[in-house]
Amino acid sequence: MSLVVPNDAEVAVLTYILTPNLSLRLFSNNIVPSATDTVANYTEVAGGGYAAKALTFAHWVLTPGGPSVGQYDTQQVWTFTGPTNAPGTIYGYYITRDLDGKLMWAERFAPGFLPFSPIVGSTVKVTPRFTGDSVY
Question: What's the rounded Cα separation, in Å, for the pair 58 and 5?
Answer without folding.
Answer: 25
